[in-house]
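To illustrate this point, what follows is a protein record of this kind.

___
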Amino acid sequence: GSVLIDLTGLNEVVVDAHASTVVTSPDGHDHEGEGAAASMLLAARVGGGALWSDLDREAAKHKRVVVGGMISSTGVGGLTLGGGIGWLARSYGLSCDAVHDLTLLIPDIEGSGHVTRLTCSSTQNEDLFWAMRGGGHSFSGKLVVTSFTFLLEPSLPSYLFAIYVYPLSVSILQLYHQVTSAPDFPDEMAVYAFLQRDSEGDHECILIACWNGPDSDKGRMLLRPFAEASQLKTSIVEMKPYTHIQSMFDLANGHGSCRLWKSNFMTDLSVSVLTELSLAVSKCPSTGFTVEIMPLGGKIAKTPSHATPFHHRNAKYEIHCIASWDSVEVAKGKKLREYVSLFGNKMIAHPETATGGYSNYLTADEGARFRASYGENADRLEHILNNIYTYK
């Protein structure tokens, strides 16, 4: 058996408006001595049971942000321990890259009731600190992270946010790839693609963009190819506060539904891959199946792959398919699970698919893929895991 520990009571978020924290970034660069830029860094102490809505709300009061996911009801700890990809990741890196230190508890293996409390940072328990920033899920059942300290980034008052809806086609996916893979595509722009069947039964491609730049006109110019595409059905382009963007999809991804993810990192998106994705959505026998394409690059790729366990920093995209159904829909759930598993396995064999997947989306039956996900970092991570009870 196992024990489930409820951390929801540890949801306090405290932003130190007077913090003057000198840090070493994940790429090993020391910010000490860089003057005002370093002295103005603000930090947020976040309980292990906090949600991203808790952190986003408190950071916004100080005109700051930290990279979260796309659903504000997601737990801060779970997302961060597996990496953390979100709207601003191309600008600032992964959620785990913003962690300055963390506190964790390790129970005594002999069952004495003794618990070791450790603070981990770049200068204390460095191996554990390294492991928790992207490799934390490997330690399930071995320890509990009770708090994080995140370094915050300056926030804009509002962000250019755009939604474009098209009939699903390979040609619109090619346009998406052409724009997002351009060598001069700026780190400040993120465009996600969602392929699904709408409520009327039609297959659609939804592109959702977030521009993290002060010049909204530049953002609109970058998105012009999507706005001018002949297949465009409808669009929404507006300025939104970050907290609004983060919570826009909470309702559609509420707690209580059943979901299954299958994830792959991609070195590129060839016509062959895009065709496979389009066909997967078109051929799915029921609603509740979505393919999501997340662009990587930017600051994610500028941090060396060995700086944290998150290995696939040089991948161009992360693709995952999602099955979603209500618990009472037993037959539908069975069909969707089978369909997602078959499609996920098919994508694994594709030549443009990197080994492993995004650990936040891997499931218990993918044990071998967990190790592959960490690439050259797997041996170091395994060594730390095997020696976890030696840390005092």
